[in-house]
Every structure is written in C-alpha cells, then in structure tokens.
Design brief:
Layout lengths: L2 H8 L2 E3 L13 H13 L4 E2 L13 H15 L4 E6 L3 H14 L3 E4 L9 H14 L4 E6 L6 H10 L5 E4 L4 H11 L5 E4 L6 H6 L4 E4 L6 H12 L3 H23 L2 H11 L16 H12 L4
Parallel strand pairs: 1-8, 2-3, 3-4, 4-5, 5-6, 6-7, 7-8
Helix pairs in contact: 2-3, 3-4, 4-5, 5-6, 6-7, 9-10, 10-11, 11-12
Length: 300
C-alpha cells in the first residue's frame, strides 16, 4: 500500500478496539470479531489492534498475535490495520514483522517502557523498528512531554515510512509547537487523546484522532470527525458536550478506569463481558448504572 493511502487512513477516526475476555479469562474471539464487525459496519475504516484500549500491556505475546490476525481477517480489506507494537526492540520488531506477514498496513509504536529515556535513545528505538519493516507505515505514539519536535524530524528524515504521529501529551499549545518543529506537513498528526482533545488539536494541525469511545458509538465519533473536517467547531463541541461525562469517568484518577468504562458500556449493551485484566479493575457497582444510562442514550 502506498504511503499516501496510509496517510489518508490516519486522517480519520483511528479506532482502538477493546479485547473482550471469556469467562475462563482467555480472549473471547467470537465477541472480538463481532465487535470488529460492528465497527466496520458503523463506518470505521482504520483499526488499531493491540492499542491501550485493547489492553496491550495485559496481553501475552501469543494473544497479541491472535488479536492482530483476527483483526486483519475480519476487516477483509474494509479497513486499514495499524497494529500496536512495543516493549523491548527485539519484541517490537518481531511483532512488526508478524503484522507485515499477516497483512497489516502499519504499526503504532507504543511509548518506550523504560525508566530512562533519552531523546537520542528515543530516535534509536523507533529507527530500529521502522528500518526492520520498511514496507509498513510507522506511527510513533508520543506521550513524553520532554521530547522535542527536532528529534521527530530527525527520525522522519532517516525513515520515510514514519508517516504519522499519535500525539498524546495533554497540552494543545505544546502540540502546536511540537508539530511545527517536527514538520507540520511531513507527518499526519493524530490527536492521541481522543475526542476530548480533538477539537483543540485539530485547530492546531491534527487531521485525525484516536478513539476508544468509538467501540460504543461509532456514529458519535464519526459525527465529530465530519464536523472537524468541515471546520464546524460548534457542531464538534455539541458532540464534545454529549460525551463529556463518559470521558470524564475514563480520565478520572489518572485514567484508572479508562478501558473499564468502555467495557462497562459495551457490557450494558450486551456486546461483551465487562471483564478486564489487572492492573485495571472492573467498575464499582455504584458507577455501572451511570455508564449504562449514558451508553443507552447514544446512537450506534
């Protein structure tokens, strides 16, 4: 697939599907595939298996491979597949090569999990992964507010397959400067903190946003996207107001229940079990009714 096609796929709702679990604790493949079909039928055209909403860090390597394979197969060419990879360099490279062999189009490189991350080391980490899969588009997932745009520009100059950026630092002014220092037109800028930050980040140059909420209501996510593409910020903010409480619940306490709230909403709709793996937790009984009420009032 040409990189321009991949760039277009990032300038969209970049869905992060959940990974449902069966009663015995294993990945519920049937429910997973059903949720993927629901996204595809709802108009979603970019899927990210093994993202944070998919509990990347709680999945075993063989489970991550199975999730990738199921997503590629279920999409059947109806969506561009952006596979989450990470951990140490050999593990990330192995996962990226598996994604390529499976038929995925891009990889999203999770933020390095290491207590000591230097800027030059950040470049080296991503360059090693990108150079191992030159056929795939590569999307760094940036959560580090200390990283400079110049370092991303350096990575982009060395690796033409680094086509986009998932920017997830919660600072719209910093994003605007970072994007311009790195190259506003060189990369596709994806608002990596989803719908709550999408209007502010679009105003500064983003053209796509990630979403976990899209698992529950593809229609709302796409409504916001279409409004932002048209520059219709009042309509986008109407959607923002509608989803505000749901996203506040996800963001509370350092996003402790980020995935939990999404799974609770899906469980309330009868779409999958609410089960989630440690170190996350299931939502307390007192909060379940509120989530169900919110999800029950949304369009599909």
């Amino acid at each position: 697939m040409e990189f321009e096609t991949l760039r277009a796929a990032l300038a969209d709702v970049v869905a992060i599907p959940v990974t449902p679990f069966a009663e015995d604790g294993s990945v519920d493949t049937a429910a997973h595939r059903a949720l993927l079909r629901r996204l595809l039928d709802g108009g979603v055209r970019t899927l990210t298996p093994n993202g944070n909403t998919g509990e990347f860090y709680a999945l075993a390597p063989e489970e991550r491979r199975a999730v990738t394979e199921a997503t590629v197969e279920e999409a059947g060419g109806r969506a561009v597949i952006l596979v989450g990879v990470g951990h140490d360099v050999p593990t990330a490279v192995e996962a990226a090569r598996h994604a390529h062999a499976t038929g995925a189009d891009m990889v999203m490189v999770h933020q390095p999990v290491h207590p000591y991350v230097s800027e030059s080391g950040w470049v080296d980490y991503h360059r090693a992964i990108a150079e191992a899969v030159p056929e795939l588009g590569v999307v760094p997932y940036i959560r580090n507010p200390l990283l400079s745009g110049a370092r991303l520009a350096e990575l982009g100059a060395a690796c033409p397959n680094v086509v986009g950026v998932k920017y997830a630092v919660p600072d719209a002014a910093r994003f605007a400067g970072f994007a311009r220092d790195a190259g506003l037109d060189r990369f596709v800028w994806v608002a990596g903190l989803a719908e709550p930050y999408a209007p502010a980040y679009f105003a500064s140059g983003a053209t796509g946003f990630t979403s976990g909420l899209v698992n529950v209501s593809p229609a709302l996510s796409l409504e916001m996207l279409h409004a932002l593409r048209a520059g219709d910020y009042p309509t986008a903010m109407k959607v923002w107001e509608r989803i505000r409480r749901f996203e506040e619940l996800r963001a509370a306490n350092g996003s402790a229940d980020n995935v939990t709230v999404v799974k609770e909403a899906l469980a309330s709709l009868g779409l999958c079990r609410r089960a989630i793996r440690p170190p996350s937790r299931e939502l307390p009984d007192a909060a379940r009714a509120e989530v169900a009420a919110i999800a029950g009032g949304w369009p599909i």
